[in-house]
Write a structure and sequence with these properties.
Elements lengths: L16 H19 L3 E5 L4 H14 L3 E7 L7 H12 L3 E6 L1 H8 L5 H22 L3 E5 L4 H8 L18 E3 L7 H10 L4 H4 L19 H20 L8 E5 L5 E5 L2 E15 L5 E3 L4 H14 L3 E6 L13
Parallel strand pairs: 1-2, 1-4, 2-3, 4-5, 8-10
Antiparallel strand pairs: 6-8, 7-8, 8-9
Helix pairs in contact: 1-2, 1-7, 2-7, 4-5, 9-10
The structure holds xanthosine-5'-monophosphate.
């Protein structure tokens, strides 16, 4: 049924709490009518779209929504904890937390080719999710955070709409896609109305392969930890400087080479940490954010003193093109 639902040409853009509330009420009724007393499964990453779908479905069907949060070890600092806090502790969701960190990192060990890394991460994710789905009984529906641009882009042949794709054939679910006709800004307004925290609703884009593409080459646990810790410091300092929500995307990368440094009179041989902060409207063309000198000085100090294995901080001032946003 959801497959055929299209955004009406004259649909008013959802920009206010009132419009969001009307949409939520409408979708709650639609979901109840679609799924009845059946159980619905959802892969809850903690990103904006899946979080909004989760919050909406919890309102509609409560514990009949089964959320699966897979920690693949490539999430940002604090993300799995926040998913558990918001959905399990505060919204009382039926949430299954899967710690698959070792499984992913063992598979990725020694793999340096970017496309192979992406394939392993995507394939392993489907395997883990399918295993969880098979353990559950009586699941008829799969909820997804498909949004209207996903549909438009797949129809235009720009990108395959991959949400449902990839699950093995025996897992033949009907789809529940309550935010399917919304644009991203509308999903955020709806999420806010559903009571999700601002740092979830206004979150910057984060790639599916996560920190894996910011740890170029073969991922090692120590270098991955340096990416995660430096990213956490960067986010914290951007928030303090009032840049959160103003700069479109910002993150750190720790490349796989070392350089000489000195700490407390002793020679070090450690990695550099690269800071990338960019702005864009369409992601096809990207410009760099020029950071205030004081903030840069402060970031250099914190990252080199607090993050193990880093002795140098570099800033990437390259627009797209010629560089892409991510390093892999
Ligand atoms: P690039 O590196 O292609 O990134 O210039 C453009 C935007 O897309 C994000 N990105 C991804 N998002 N899965 C995603 O969901 C991915 O595999 C992926 N790769 C890149 C990137 O963070 C940037 O916002």
């Amino acid at each position: 049924m959801a497959e055929y639902l299209r955004r009406p040409d004259d649909m008013e853009r959802i920009t206010t709490p009132e419009l969001a509330k009307a949409f939520i009420d409408e979708q709650i009724a639609a979901v109840k009518a679609q799924v009845g007393d059946n159980k619905v499964l959802l892969a809850l990453s903690g990103g904006v779209d899946s979080s909004v779908v989760a919050a909406l479905l919890i309102k509609a069907i409560g514990k009949n929504l089964v959320c699966v949060h897979v920690n693949h070890g490539l999430l940002r600092k604090g993300e799995p904890e926040q998913v558990i806090k918001v959905f399990k502790d505060e919204m009382d969701a039926n949430l299954i937390y899967v710690d698959a960190v070792d499984r992913f990192l063992d598979k990725l060990a020694g793999v340096s080719d970017p496309e192979t890394k992406r394939k392993i991460i995507g394939g392993e994710f489907i395997d883990v999710f399918a295993e969880e789905a098979r353990k559950l009984e009586g699941i008829k529906f799969l909820a997804q955070g498909t949004i209207w641009p996903d549909i438009l882009e797949s129809e235009a042949g720009i990108k395959a709409h991959h949400n449902a794709g990839g699950l093995p054939e025996d897992l033949d679910f009907d789809l529940v896609e309550p935010v399917r006709i919304l644009f991203k800004d509308e999903v955020r307004v709806v999420g806010k109305e559903l009571g999700l925290p601002d740092n979830m609703v206004y979150r910057q884009p984060f790639p599916g392969p996560g920190l894996g593409v910011r740890c170029p080459g073969a991922i090692t646990r120590d270098r991955l930890e340096a990416v995660r810790e430096s990213d956490a410091i960067l986010r914290e300092e951007f928030a303090k400087a009032g840049l959160e929500g103003k700069v479109w995307q910002y993150f750190t990368v720790v490349p796989d080479f070392k350089s000489t440094g000195v700490t407390d009179g002793k020679r070090t041989f450690n990695w550099p940490c690269i800071i990338r902060a960019i702005n864009t409207t369409d992601v096809m063309e990207v410009s760099v954010e020029h950071l205030p000198a004081e903030l840069i000085d402060h970031l250099v100090k914190r990252i080199t003193t607090e993050v193990a294995g880093i002795n140098r901080v570099l800033i990437d001032y390259t627009p797209k093109p010629p560089a892409t946003v991510e390093y892999e």
